[in-house]
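User: Can you predict the 3D structure of RNA helicase? Sequence below.
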Amino acid sequence: MMKLCQFGIPSSLSQRVSNYFKLSRNNLQSPVLPKLLQHDIRIYCLSGSSGNEKNMEKLVAHIERLKSSLDVDKNKLIVPNFSSVRKIGGVRSRRNESAFECSLNVNIPSLISFRALGKGLTKELAKKSAINVFIRTTSFYTSKSITKSSIDNDILTPSSSRSSLNSKHDYCAVGVNVLKDLRRQYSHCATETKESEKQKPVSAIDLETHHSGEEADARKNEEKIIHSIDSEIDQKLYRDLLKVYPAPRNRLQNFFDTLEKSSKKKLLRTSSRLNKAKQWEYKYSLEWPKSAEFIGVSSSKKESAKKSALLALKWLKDMGKIDSKGNLFTVNPKEFRRQELNKPLASISLNKEYIEETESLVEEYDNVFAEQLQEICSQWDNTDRPSYFDTGVAKFDQFEASKTFLERRNKDLLAALEKRKTLPSRSLPLPITDYGARIVDLVRNNQVVVIKGEPGCGKSTQVPQLIFDDYTERLEGTECNIVVTQPRKISAMSIAERIAHERYEELGDVIGYQVRFASKLPQFNDGNILFCTLGIMLRKLLSPDGLYGVTHLIIDEAHERDLNTDILLLLAKRAIASNPDLRIVIMSATINPELFQNYFNGAPSILVPGFTHPVSSNFLDSNMERTLRLTGAEIKKGLEQPGGDNKIITKMVTKMVNWIDDNRPPGAILVFLPGWDTIRKVRDELDAYSDLFVVPVHSRLSHDDQRKIFMQPPRGKRKVVLATNIAETSITINDVIYVIDSGLLKEKRLNSTDGLSCLDNQWASRASVIQRKGRAGRVQPGECFHLYTREKFDSLEEFPMPEVHRIRLEMVVLQSKTYSGHEKAEEFLSQLPEPPKVQVIREAVRTLQFIGALDEDENLTPLGHRISIFTTHPLISKALVHAYFFKCVNPLVTIGTILSSEMELFPGMAFDKSPIREGKARFSPSSDHIAMTWLFHQWAEYLQTDDYRAERLMEEMLGSHKSFLFVKRLQELVADHLRQCELVPKTSLLFAKKADCNAYAFNDELIKGVLLSGVGNLLIHREYQLRKGVLKKTPSLVTMEGHTALIAGESVNYKRSEFPSPLLTYFQEMHSAQNRIAMIRETSIVAPLTVALFQPGTLTVVKPLGQDMDATNNVTLQLKSKKPLNFICDERTATAVVKLREAMWNVIDYFVMECGNPSNTKLYSDVSGFHNEVLSLLHRMLMEVGTNIDYDENGNLRKFVGKTR
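Assistant: Sure. Here are the predicted C-alpha cells for RNA helicase:
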C-alpha cells in the first residue's frame, strides 16, 4: 500500500484532506475476474505540491500507467451523462459535522467506475466540489497553490481549502479500487461501447445544472454514510476513545443485540477482508439510527475491528445516542419517563345513580359533620399513649405476699437446695462451676457484668442458678427474680426444661418460660427464674409494670447482634440509670465481647474457658475434591458466586454426608446450611438413604418437629441434623461429632443508597465459622469439614454484621416511640451499640409519616398509637385497623397473618408452580390474597367438623396441613392485637361471620382496597419495556419507585397475558444481589376506582388547558402518592370521587382517634350511621368494578395465567 509518507507528506495532514477520489477498474486482460475483485490499490495525495518534485513525478507517472491500462486516450476525457450517474446511485448528500459531503458516482460501461467525494459549507458547494474533484483528477492538472511552508507546519485553513477547491489547477486525492458491483457491471455490459452511449466532454457547469434536477430523487433514498479509518489514525483520538469505550466491540454488539431483539430486524452487520496491501479491512454496517458504514484498517484483524467499532461509537455519540455515562439508548430515559408520568393509566366511570348518591352523601357530610370532626381531630393530644391499651403479655398473679409467707418460702427454697446437694448431680461437670464464686461476687457488686464464655462452658444453664442459689443460701430467695432472654423460643424452652430437670423440679415451680404460643410461668411472683424470648421481653417493657419486680436481667447470646438484642441493651442501659438495684448480666461467646464492655462504660468481665474435645478442621483441597468427585469448574463456581451455588452446595453436602457415614465411626452429623430451601433439597436427597436419620431444624417448623434433633436415632441409623445458623450457639446437641460447614447463611440485607432489601445467601463471618466448628467434640474428639478453601476462610469478615444494619427500620422506629416518647428517632437509635446509618432511619421515618403513623414532628398519631403495640409490620397493622371500620376484619386478619408468618404453605414445589397457581385460581383468578383467604377459610371450616377432610383439601391443593395449623394459631394472636388496642371487646367477635365487623367480608374488591390502604404499594403493567435505554414492545411491570418487577411462579398473575386493570397491589418486594429486578410473591389486580379511593396520597382534579380540551369534557384525576398516578374521567365523576374520598377518610380518622373511648357518644353514634350509608354505597360500587376484574363484558371468566414454565 502506497502511503503519503512516501511522498514526504505528513500523515496527520492527510486526515484533513477535504476531497478525495476513488478510481475503480477492471483489468480486461485478466481472464479471472473474481481474483481481481480482491485487489485494492489506493493512492493518497494532498491538494497541492508536496515540495518534492521527484516524488510527484513518480506519482504522475504511476497515474499515466493506470490510464494506459484502461486504454483511454489521455487527451480525451470520457464523461457519462447523468442518466448513467442516476443508474449507479446518483448524487447523495449528508450532514457531516459542520460541512456537507457529496458523493458523485460515474460509470463507463464495461470499462471503469469513478467515485468522487466533495465537501462544502452548503449542499450546493459540496456538489460543486465533488464535480470539480472529478474534472481536476481525471485531467491530471497540478500546481503549487499550497506552499511548502503551510504543509510543513501542518496547517490547512478553511479559506485556503475552499480556494484550492475552486482552482482548476488544484490536485486532489487519487485512488484505485475494485468496487463490489464490478462483477455485475462487467457481466451485463457489452464489450464495446455502443455509438449511442458515446459521451461528449461535459464541463463542471453543465454537471451542476444536471445535478439540480436529481436532488429530489436523491432525497428519497436513505443515505449511507461511509467512514473509514486507516492504520495511521490519530493516536491521541484513538487513546481518548479507548478510555471512554475500553471494549468497543462488545459495547456495540451488546447494544445492537438488545435493539434487534426489540425491533426483530437485522440492524448490524460485519465483514472483513485482506486487501492487496495485506492490510485487514473490517467493516461495520449499521441500519440504525440511519444507514452508515465504518471501516477500520490495520495489519491486525482484531485491531481493525476495534478501530471500526470506535468510529461507530463516536458517530453514535455525535448523533446523540450515547449518554454522558457512555450508555447507548434509543430514547432518552428521563424525557420518556417524564412524558409517561403525564399519561393517564386508565379511565374511571360511574353510572348516574352512583354519582347522585355520592353527591347527596357528600352534601350531608359538609352540612352536618365536617366542622365537628375537624374540630375534634385538631384537639388530639399526642403526649401520652392511651393507658387502656394492653400489650398482650401474660402476667403473674398480682398479690402482696405476707411476711410470714415469704419467710416460709425462703426456708422451703433452702431445704430444696440442701436436698439437691445430697442427690446425684444431673448436670455434667462444666468449667463454669470453678468460676461460680467470682461470678456471684461480680454480679453482687456491679450493676453490669459481661461474661465471655467459650462453647461448652455451661453459662446458659448455670449462671442463673448460681445467682439464685446465692440468694437462697442467704434465705433471700424470694428477693431474687431473674429474667433470662434467649434469641429463639426453642432455646428458651429447652434450657428451662433442662434446668428444671437438673434441680429435680417441675416446670412452673421456680423455673418457667414464656414464648409465643406457649408459656409455663413460675407459680410465685417472688423467687423465680423466667426464660423468655427477646420479643416477649420488649413487650413487657411496653407495659406500665415494665421491669417492676425484676432483680436480674440476663441477656444471653448477646453476640448474635439481632435487632431485639441491640434494642434491649439500649433499654437496659437506660434502666440501670433510674434503678440502681437492677443487675444486668450480658453473656456472650468470645465474639467481640469488648463491644459490650465499652458500651456499658468499662463494665467488668470474666472469661470462662469452654470444655470441648479437640476438633480438627478439614478445608476444601485437592483431596476433598477427589473425595466429593467434583470438577474444578464446579468448585470454582461454588466459591466465586456471591453466596455460593445452591445446586453445588446440595451436591457437596450430600456426598460429604455419605462419605462420613461410610468412612467414620458412629456419631451424629450437624450440617450448617444457608436456608430452608437448601435444607429441604438436601433432606430430599438424603431421604433416599435408609441408614440415615435426617432431622431438620428451622424456625418454620413446629416446636415438636424441632425437638426431634435431641432424640436418639433408631438402631443402625446415623443422625443427620440439617440446621441454619440457629445451631451455632443457641442449641447444643450433645451427640454431634461431625460438622459439615457450608460457610453460608441466608440474610436479608439492605442497600442504604436505594432502600432495597435483598434476601440472598451470604458468607458467614470467621467468628461464626469458629462457633460452628465448636459444635462438634462435645462428647469426644470431632471433625469439621469446611466446604470451602482456607484462602476463602481467611478472606471472610471477622464478625457478623448487626441486624440493625441489614434491615429496614419502620418497625424499629415505631416501637422506639413507645419507649422514647417524643425523642427523635435519630437521637434514640444513635445510642445503640452500633447505630444504623442516618439515611436509613430517615427513610423509615418518611415511610411512617406516609402511612400516617407519625406526624411531621415524629410524634405518634392516633393510628400510630394503635399499631405501635402490634407485632406485625406497620403496613399490615394499618390495614388491620382499617379493616375493622370497613367491616371486613376476618379476611384481612387472614391475609395479614399469612404475609407476616413467612411460612412455606406450599412446600415441595421448587420448580413447577403451575399446580399451585391452578389450585389458588379456583378461589380467585386475579388475586393471591383473596385466593389464600378463601382457601384458608374453607380449610378452617373443614377442620371444625372433620380433620381428615381438612387434610385431604391440603393434599389436593399441595399445601401443608401443619403450616396451616401454625397460621391458625398465629391468626388468633394477630386478631388479639385489635382487642389490645381497644377496637373490639373480645377477639372471638372478629371471627364470627354474622358479626357487624364482618358485614362486607365477602366483597373481594373492598378487601383489596383496605389492604392497599395499608401497604400503599402498586405495580404498574405496561405494554412496553424500557431497558438500558432501549424501548421494547414487550409487556413489563414496574414498581412505583421505577424498579422492574417480576411476579413469582406461584402467583395467579404469573406471566398473565390479559390485564383488565394495569394496577396490582402487593405487600413487599425482594431484590436479588445479582440484579435489580424486584421479585414479588403475592399480587392482586385492583380496579382504578379502588386505587383512587384507597391508595394513600392526595387526590385532585386537573382540568386541561384550552388547547387540550376535547368535546368529551374529560379531566385528569391525579393521585399524588409515591409517584403521580393519572386517571381520565368526566368532570362530574372526578368531583364526586374526590369528595367521597375526602369524607370517607375523615370519618375513618375520627373513628381511629375515638373508638373505644369516644369523647361524645351522641356524635359518635351519628357519624356511625352516616358511615354505614357510605359503606353501603362503596360496597355496591366496588362489587361492580370488582366483577369487571374477574369477568369480561360477556360474563365469561377471564384467563388467569399466561405462559407456563
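Residues 345 and 1127 are 6 Å apart (CA to CA). Confidence is low (pLDDT under 50) at residues 1-52, 69-98, 107-112, 138-223.
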